[in-house]
Amino acid sequence: xxxxxxxxxxxxxxxxxxxxxxDLLAAxxxxxxxxxxxxxxxxxxxxxxxxxxxxxxxxxxxxxAEFRLTPPPETGVSWCSGPACWLKGSxxxxxxxxxVLGIRMGESTPDNRVGLHLxxxxxxxxxxxxxxxxGRVQGRLSVAEAIRLARELKGETETPP
Amino acid sequence: MSTYAELRQQAEAAWRAVESPPRPxxxxxxxxxxIAVGAEESLAALRSEVERRxxxxxxxxxxxxxxSYEEPVVEVAWPDGRRILYRRITADMVPRLVEEVLVxxxxxxxxxxxxxxxxxxxxxxxxxSLDFWKVQTRRLMANCGVIDPxxxxxxxxxxxxxxxxxxLEGMSQEEVIKEVSDSSLWGRGGAAFPAGRKWDFLRTxxxxxxxxxxxxxxxxxxxxxxxxxxxxxxxxxxxxxxxGGYATGASHAFIYIRHxxxxxxxxxxxxxQQAREKGLLGEHILGSDFSFDMExxxxxxxxxxxxxSGLIASVDDDRGMPRIRPPYPAQSGxxxxxxxxxxxxxxxxVSSIIRHGAAWYRExxxxxNPGTKMxxxxxxxxxxxxxxxxxxxxxxxxxxxxxxxxxxxxxKAIQAGGPLAGLLPARFIDIPLEPEAFREQGAQMGxxxxxxxxxxxxxxxxxxxxxxxxxxESCGRCTTCRGGTQRMVDILERIAAGGGRxxxxxxxxxxxxxxxxxxxxxxxxxxxxxxxxxxxxxxEYRQHVLEKRCPARVCKGLIRYEVVxxxxxxxxxxxxxxxxxxxxxxxRWRIDQALCIKCDACRExxxxxxxxxxxxxxxxxxx
Lengths: 161, 623
Fold this sequence. Notes:
The complex is a heterodimer. By secondary structure, chain A is of the alpha+beta class.
C-alpha cells in the first residue's frame, strides 16, 4: 500500500503497540480518537503493526458497537437503551427522534448533520430518560422535549408549515 | 525503596490535612452520575468564586457517595472536624453556597443534605440517619465519597495496601488463599464461584506466565456498582488484584473496562501510575521478591465481553466471542496461558479480607453468604443510588431506602441482576438478597443491579425490550442463541402488534427450552425474563393473545389515541405531533390513525383532550 500522510500518522500513533500483546483494542481506540472514525487505510497499518490479518482487524471493528468506519455526524445523538430510561418512556423518545429526523437508530441524516446511536446504560439513571448529545447528558426528557430537540437539530422551526 | 511503614507515615500527614483541615475545605463529588447533572461546572464555579472573593478555603474533589439522587453532592469540611454534605449544588447554586456557608460561616440548612461528621444541627440530620443510609454497612464503600480517588495517599492513610504489606511480609501463597477461602468470599460477577478455589486453580497451574484479569465490563443495563468502586476507590481494586497475583504466582494483570466508563478508565490509569511511583507495582514490590504489573484494556461496546471467555478473546485481539469451555481460563486463558478472572467487587473485598481477616468478613451477612454486597437501585424509585448491605437483607429494605415507588403507583416487578437474570413479581418483595433465594424462583440475584418496575408497565412490552437486547448482544456463534432470540423477538413483537396466537404460549416455552443449548451464559440465560413473565404474568399474556387487549395500554398494536374532548390544548398537540396526525376537519379535531405513531406527545401536552383506548373492542362491548 502506498504511504500517505494519513497512514504515516497512524503508523506513528500506534508505533509503541506490539504484536501478541493484547493491543488491538488500544490501537483502534487511538485511531478513532484521532479521526473520529477508523479510516479504511488504517486497517492495513494496524494489521501490519500488530501482525494480524486485515480480516481480523476488520472483524474486530465490526464486532464492537463503538467503532465506526465512516466519519461521525456533526451532532451525534446517543440514545440510552437502558432499563431505567425505558421504564420512563425512552421507547417513545426513540420513536420521535426517528420520526422527526427521518432516520433509524444507527443511521445519520444524508447530509451527516445528525446521527442516532444506540447507547448503553452507564448508570446515570436519575436522569432517565436521557440522551447524550455530543457526549453531554440531556436528561429527564418528555416526549415533547425530545421532539423539540430533534427539530432544532434538524434545523426546523418549532411549528412546521 | 520505601517500606510500607514509611509510605503510611507520609500518607497520614497528607490525610490529616483532609481530616482536620487547617481551613475550610469544599469537596465536589466528581463521578459519572454527578457529572451528568453538572458537577464539573460546579467545581469550576466553586474555584472561581473562592478566588474572586479572596476566601481562605480549599477546593477539592471526592468520589461517589452513592447518593445519585442528590447530585451534585458537595462536602464542606471545617477545621473543627464538622463535615456537612450539600445537595444538588449545580453551578447556579454555588454563589449562594459560598456566600451563606463560607463567607457567613453558616449552615445553609435549605441547601444541606446531611451532617457527615458532627451533630445534627439546624434541622439538618446526621448522614447515618437518612433512610438511604441507615440500612447500610459500608465496607467496600468505606472510602467512596470520602477520599480523593486520584490521591493514593488518601487510600494508604486509611489502611490501604496494609493487606498487601502483610501478605508480602509474612504470608505464604497458600495462607493468602486460605484466608480468602475461610472468608467464603465468592465471585460477585453473578456466577458466585468461591474466589479462593478459583485462585487455587491458578496457583497450581503449571505453565507461566500467569495472568490475572479484572472484569470491569459491568455490562448489565441498570447495574453500576463496579463503576462506583472504580471511580471512587480504584486502589482498593488494585490491591486485591495484587494480592491475587501474589497468591497465584501471576505476574501481570489486565483490567478490562467497558467503553461506557471513561472516568473509571482515567482514574484506574492514574491509580496504576501512582502505585508504580510508590513501588507498589513493578519490580520487587515493597522490597520483596514479588514483581507484578498491570494495564487497563478499554472495551468498545459488546455485552458478551463481560462473559469471561469473551473477555479473554477480546484481550487476545479477537472478536469478543465467548469460547467453548473447557479448557477453562485457569488452564488456558489469555494468550493461551493460565488466567484468573474475577469481578471488580471480588478483588476489592480481598484487600480488606487480608487486612482484617476472614473472621471479620464473616461478622455480617448470613451463615451461607457472609459479608456485604453493593447494589445499584434504579427504575421506578424516588431515589436512584448505590448502597451496600449485608447478604440476606430483604429487597423490601432496599426499596424503602430508595423511597418506594413514586407517583402513587404500585410495585409490579423486581428486575435484579440484568437482562439475563430474571424478573420477579412484586409479591417477592421480601426475598432475601442471596443467590439461592433467587435461584429457587428461576431467577438470579446477579451482579448488583436492581431495577424496580411499577404497574404502568406492560410485561409483554418489557419482554420485547429485553428480547431486543439479548438478540442484539448475542455474538452469533451458537445457533440456538442467535436464531432463538430472533424468533423470540418475532413472536413477542407479533403479540404486541395484536397478532398473538394461542400456539404462541407453547412456542415461547419451546424457545425457552431450546435457546439455552448454547455455549455461554448469554444464550443459556437469554430467555429467563420471558419465562419468568410467562409464569408469573400469565393473565397479562392471555389478555394480549386471546382478548387482544393490553391492560397497561402500551402495546402499539392494541391501542389507539383518540380525541375525547375539545380543548384549547389541541392546537399545541397538533403542533408538537411529529407526524402531523392531530388534524382538524370541519372545526373538529381528530387523530389520523394512519399517521399516528403512538408516541404520546399529544397526550402529554393535552391530557384533558386525548385518551388512549383499546384498539380492538370485542363485538359484545360495542355500543
